[in-house]
Write a structure and sequence with these properties.
- The structure holds two protein chains of two kinds.
- In chain A, 71% of the residues lie in helices and 0% in strands.
- By secondary structure, chain A is an all-alpha fold.
- Chain A is globular and about 60 Å long.
- By secondary structure, chain B is α/β, with parallel strands linked by helices.
- Chain B folds into two domains: 19-236, Rossmann fold (3-Layer(aba) Sandwich); 237-307, Alpha-Beta Plaits (2-Layer Sandwich).
- Chain B has helices spanning 59-66, 88-92, 110-119, 126-135, 151-163, 181-198, 209-215, 254-261, 288-297, 312-319; strands spanning 19-30, 33-44, 48-52, 74-79, 82-83, 95-99, 169-173, 201-205, 218-223, 226-232, 245-251, 268-273, 278-283, 302-307.
- In chain B, the strands form three sheets. Chain B has a six-stranded mixed β-sheet, sandwiched between helices.
- The two termini of chain B are 39 Å apart.
- Classes of the chains: A mainly alpha, B alpha/beta.
- At the A-B interface, α1 of A face α2, β6 and α3 of B.
């Protein structure tokens, strides 16, 4: 299995565009630090606060998500687009394993981007703002990073499923971006209906529960975790069943 | 898989080698339409078998069912006795495939691409990679990205990946599609050599009949998903003593020649073409000298004597009713 994951990782890594995502993170983080240091010289800000901002879903989480969707939308659909699916599926490996290795490589990609985000924001923050007196603990940072991870993995899984279903990288990126944009709007417009809380879009951002808040009245953290788990199981099931059953014509 | 999968070939062209591939009553039904209908045939070690049929006969579907890319509605395919349906990984481990033009990851080098497939199979050593690369003559291109490869080079890399895991059977779907005549010839030479030297069975689908004729020892002809015939392609040197062959005689006067020839019991006049002064007869090899003597005594001038071989194309059109293009 680890060899299959390694294969999938190489398929991402060997592309010339692979490093662009990491570069974009560096540019955005360093740029943000520069402007924040320039514009608000008197602001009480420090390295840890900066890292927190970088790692939170409402901070650079959106940038991260964008990079992940663009970077991984082709993991399944490109195999069809390039025609490499034919040689991939006539190996002595089950289709389930092949698809699982692709999913694992996506999660690894997300983790690598987050780690990059953390390291760059920590270094940049320390240089730009100094250690100071942080208003957040490392524990808070770990927590918000976890929320970002959950948020990103949910959308990556949707992207993954759409990639399997549509076999088109373009449509996959387009649809996922569309859903990302409309997420807030859908929840806002449908807020008055009780079924809305069961939509995945109302539950993706667990950071809304911090300090006693909730996306919609009556929702709790454990409720959202269960909803997320159910949706994820569904998305993955649809992906795997489709991938295993489908004829490659 | 670690052990050498293919016993090096002893098998003559067909029939006597071990059965490597068995297609047993395979059916593919989509809606009410049966694209492939209870198709059965066997392939033995060391033989090259062509899968022929007009466009839309179900060749590609059949090949893709054999390698598991398309599911079977009914029937099963056994590769060295392993079921593709039930033990896919075990069965497919004996198969090397090129499905249409082989497609690779264009941004990776040839070597990186082969490494991908090495990691997906058991027991492929670096030496084996070097060996197949040498066999297809791509040593100098291994460090180049595949997107810089010509189609011919990609075909050769396709053969390399198919041979990587020492398969017992190669399955090729339209392998010469898009190749120029030199490329086609090169491909044919590789395949013949592989079959001969490594005892690998080869199943190849193509619509290029002349190509199949040069390459295959047997052809399986299908039409509308059904088996039409299985034919052994004999080479002319092996014509049996007792078989009559058709011979065309070009003479100065076809009528006169015919009148004399019909009186001979040992031959049959099959046709006459007075415009071109040709008479076609069916005759045994041993009687031909006699025919020549008889015609000379009759005063008929003999210009040319030629064996009329039915080309695969002629036969093919006969089998498939000639209605569709090949």
């Amino acid at each position: 299995m680890h060899k299959l994951v390694f294969n999938e990782w190489l398929k991402l890594f060997k592309k010339r565009s692979f490093f662009i995502a990491y570069l974009v993170i560096a540019v955005f983080v360093i740029g943000a630090a520069y402007f924040m240091a320039k514009l608000s010289e008197d602001a009480v800000f420090n390295a840890r606060d900066f890292v927190f901002m970088a790692m939170s879903p409402s901070g650079f989480g959106t940038l991260l998500l964008f990079l992940v969707v663009v970077g991984t939308a082709g993991v399944v659909s490109k195999e069809y687009g390039q025609g490499t699916i034919k040689l991939l599926l006539i190996r002595a490996q089950s289709r389930g394993k092949i698809l699982l290795s692709k999913y694992i490589s996506i999660v690894l990609y997300i983790l690598s981007l987050m780690l990059t985000m953390f390291v760059i924001s920590f270094i940049t923050g320390t240089i730009a703002f100094g250690a100071g007196a942080p208003s957040v603990s490392w524990n808070d940072i770990a927590q918000t990073a976890l929320y970002t991870l959950v948020y990103t993995v949910i959308y990556a899984t949707i992207t993954f499923m759409l990639g399997v279903l549509t076999r088109s990288t373009g449509i996959t990126v387009g649809l996922t971006m569309f859903l990302m944009m409309l997420e807030g709007l859908i929840v806002g417009l449908l807020a008055k209906y009780s079924f809305t809380k069961y939509l995945i879009f109302a539950n993706t951002d667990l950071s809304k529960y911090v300090d006693g808040g909730s996306p919609l009245p009556g929702m709790t953290m454990s409720f959202s975790v269960i909803v997320i788990a159910v949706y994820m199981a569904l998305f993955l099931m649809v992906s795997f069943v489709t991938f295993k059953k489908r004829d490659v014509a | 898989m670690n052990k050498a999968v293919n016993q090096v070939g002893t098998g003559p062209a067909n029939g006597t080698g071990k059965v490597v591939l068995q297609v047993n009553g395979v059916t593919k039904q989509i809606g009410h339409k049966k694209i492939v209908d209870r198709l059965s045939f066997d392939i033995h070690q060391g033989e090259i078998v062509g899968l022929l049929g007009p466009n839309g006969a179900g060749k590609t579907t059949t090949i893709r069912m054999i390698v598991g890319l398309i599911g079977m509605s009914e029937g099963d395919v056994l590769i060295k006795g392993e079921s593709v349906k039930r033990h896919f990984a075990k069965a497919i481990a004996h198969v090397g495939g090129i499905i249409e033009n082989p497609e690779f990851y264009p941004y990776m080098t040839g070597y990186d691409n082969l490494k991908q497939y090495q990691r997906m199979a058991k027991g492929i050593t670096e030496e084996r990679i070097a060996e197949v690369v040498r066999l297809v003559g791509l040593q100098d291109a291994m460090k180049k990205r595949v997107k810089a490869y010509s189609l011919g080079m990609r075909q050769r890399l396709g053969i390399a990946q198919a041979l990587l895991h020492n398969p017992s059977i190669l399955i090729l779907d339209e392998p010469t599609n898009g190749l120029d005549p030199a490329g086609i010839r090169e491909m044919r030479d590789y395949l013949k050599r592989i079959a001969r030297e490594e005892g690998i069975a080869i199943l190849v689908s193509s619509h290029l009949l002349s190509e199949m004729e040069l390459m295959c020892s047997r052809v399986v002809v299908i039409q509308e998903g059904k088996l039409v015939t299985v034919r052994t392609l004999g080479d002319s040197s092996a014509v049996k003593e007792e078989e009559q062959i058709q011979v065309m005689l070009r003479v100065n006067d076809a009528e006169q020649a015919k009148l004399r020839l019909v009186r001979m019991e040992e031959l049959r006049v099959v046709g006459i073409d007075t415009d071109r002064n040709q008479v076609t007869i069916a005759v045994h090899d041993r009687d031909i000298p006699n025919v020549i003597d008889v015609l000379r005594n009759e005063g008929v001038a003999l210009y040319r004597i030629e064996e009329m071989k039915e080309s695969l194309e002629d036969e093919f059109l006969k089998w498939t009713g000639g209605s569709q293009s090949a």
